[in-house]
């Protein structure tokens, strides 16, 4: 069995942003030499997500507004977690969008449907944060 | 390491439907010959889900109404994504229900609790769409 | 390829509770002897979750209130599933929090970011329920 591990680092200057990380993950897959197996891509932080959806700016704005409706940032005092912090909403947004994706590797490629792209979803930016890429297979 | 790959195709005539795909996934597992390992089952489209829950029609109607409350289809103009499309809500419903499940394989069987069943969740039907089944193990 | 399987049992006396199961999962990993691979940890019941987030009591209360807002338990008659049951809301809460996590194993350890902890999320307690730990790797 082959295995491969790499961390991808991101620094989002604002609070929230969605970043297409598919090219970085593809590069990891090429480096790994794995032809058949599984890739796990997960946020290593609990106020961020890794998810698969469409790379369409209108949709990304829709996601941002929708997540704000389901788990509003303000007023920060509505959350018990926000003692010396203001990121409780980010812990909730991350649960809706998810922590991780598992992607099939087939003949050395990410085995994707026509529009699948992998995103890093930052909900509490302003500092360096990491994504883990782990690949197992042969 | 053994590996197996198959696509399952679905054509939901209406907009939304939940389909129990457990028998098809079990057939894939039997074909694969894998006795111990992991199965990944994922929607290959970004307006559909694969998830595990109960095969109970009342619950499925509840899910449909609940998802409509959290991410309503109408008015379609409320979403920026809906320029020449009307499926922004389906991209959101899919995030709540999830893209994929990973299931343990033990002694050649889906290692399930008493009521676990795998569903394809279509949120933007009317055309042929796919699910990927990838199995690795031995 | 090595493989390992264990069930973890929980009995939450009330309806809802979040339990940190990271130490139990770590013990499983040590028992397995796997150095490089993947761990799947999933609820075997469809009204419970396994998820990764922060072990902070204020956040856990926030989650509870937030999930009650998104999928209220009462009135139980609002759900079609609740014929002789009252747990439809638990099937929804579980979809938001997720069924499973997949965690990388690197050099024999759970490959975690600084605050990642694994939780069992019970949304319909009062009876014994199970979590599956499956590990594959080498």
Q: What features would you describe in this structure?
A:
3 copies of one chain form a homotrimer. The longest helix of chain A is centred in the middle third of the chain and has 14 residues, at 57-70. Chain A has 138 residues and is an alpha+beta fold. The first copy, chain A, has one domain (2-137): YjbQ-like (Jelly Rolls), CATH 2.60.120. Chain A has helices at residues 22-32, 57-70, 88-97, and strands at residues 2-11, 17-20, 37-43, 48-53, 100-106, 109-110, 117-122, 128-137. Chains in contact: A-B, A-C, B-C. The B-C interface holds B 1, 36-38, 51-54, 56-59, 61-63, 66, 70, 96-98, 101-104, 106, 111-116, 136-138 and C 1, 3, 5, 38, 40, 42-46, 70-71, 79-83, 88, 91-92, 94-96, 98-100, 102, 130, 132, 134, 136.
What are the secondary-structure elements of chain A, in order, as H or E? EEHEEHHEEEE
- Can you tell me the overall shape of chain A? elongated
Order of neighbouring strands in the sheet with most strands of chain A = 1-8-3-5-6
Examine the coordinates and then state which fold CATH places here, giving the name of the CATH topology of chain A.
Answer: Jelly Rolls
For this structure, what is the CATH class of chain A?
A: Mainly Beta
Low-confidence stretches of chain A: none
How many H/I helices of chain A? 3
> How far from one another are the termini of chain A?
5 Å
Average pLDDT taken over every residue of chain A: 98
Structural class of chain A: alpha+beta
- Provide the number of structural domains of chain A: 1
Beta-strand level of the residues of chain A, as a percent range?
35-45%
Q: What is the assigned CATH homologous superfamily of chain A?
A: YjbQ-like
Largest sheet of chain A: 5 strands, antiparallel
Report the count of strand segments of chain A: 8
Percentage of residues in helical conformation of chain A: 25-40%
């Amino acid at each position: 069995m082959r295995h491969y591990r790499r961390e991808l680092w991101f620094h989002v200057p604002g609070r929230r942003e969605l970043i297409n990380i598919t090219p970085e993950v593809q590069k990891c897959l090429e480096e790994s030499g794995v032809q058949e197996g599984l890739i796990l891509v997960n946020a290593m932080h609990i106020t961020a997500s890794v998810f698969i959806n469409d790379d369409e700016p209108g949709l990304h704005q829709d996601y941002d507004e929708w997540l704000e409706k389901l788990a509003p940032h303000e007023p920060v005092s509505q959350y018990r977690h926000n003692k010396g912090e203001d990121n409780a909403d980010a812990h909730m947004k991350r649960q809706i969008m998810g922590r991780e994706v598992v992607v099939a590797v087939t003949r050395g490629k990410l085995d994707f449907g026509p529009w699948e792209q992998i995103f890093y979803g930052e909900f509490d930016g302003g500092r360096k944060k990491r994504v883990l890429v782990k690949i197992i297979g042969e």
